[in-house]
Specification:
Layout: H1 19-35, E1 63-68, E2 74-76, E3 79-80, H2 83-95, E4 101-106, H3 112-124, E5 130-132
Parallel strand pairs: 1-4, 4-5
Antiparallel strand pairs: 1-2, 2-3
Helix pairs in contact: 2-3
């Protein structure tokens, strides 16, 4: 038996060396963590299905018009659209070869906030060819 260095009587050491026990427990813990299968938790969701089978407004391969009316309605080639639909149409046009032009024509009395949203959507869609139509109407408004 091991004795302490300051113990001259040869009594056994009272402190137990737990370092090997800790090492074994850590190895077992690591092996246990590695062997546990990764649990993938899935939740089944019934997502809504689009019931409308309306064909999308046609996308012109040469130029497309986006109009903001005085009633703050956004029109794509004369058909009303939401901002999400506008983004989808812009994404489709940017995939075409050659990329069609986009003509933005805001009404002179349209709210700037709506026009700004349309501009933000076109920027996020990385529109390459864009032009403003009807700028001469703004001269008479102010």
């Amino acid at each position: 038996m091991q004795t302490t260095s300051d113990n001259s009587d040869g009594e056994p050491m009272l402190d137990m060396n737990v370092t090997p026990l800790i090492d074994v427990m850590l190895v077992l813990l690591i092996m246990f963590i590695i062997t546990i299968p990764i649990q993938t938790h899935a939740v089944k969701l019934d997502l809504p299905v689009n019931q409308q089978n309306n064909p999308p407004p046609p996308i012109d391969p040469v130029k497309n018009n986006v109009t903001v009316t005085a009633k703050d309605q956004v029109l794509w080639n004369g058909n009303p659209v939401t901002m999400d639909q506008l983004r989808q149409y812009l994404d489709v046009t940017q995939q075409m070869n050659p990329v069609p032009e986009l003509h933005l024509q805001p009404d002179a009395t349209a709210r700037y906030e709506i026009v700004d949203e349309v501009l933000a959507v076109t920027k996020r869609a990385h529109v390459q060819k864009m032009g403003f139509v009807g700028n001469e109407y703004y001269m008479n408004v102010f």
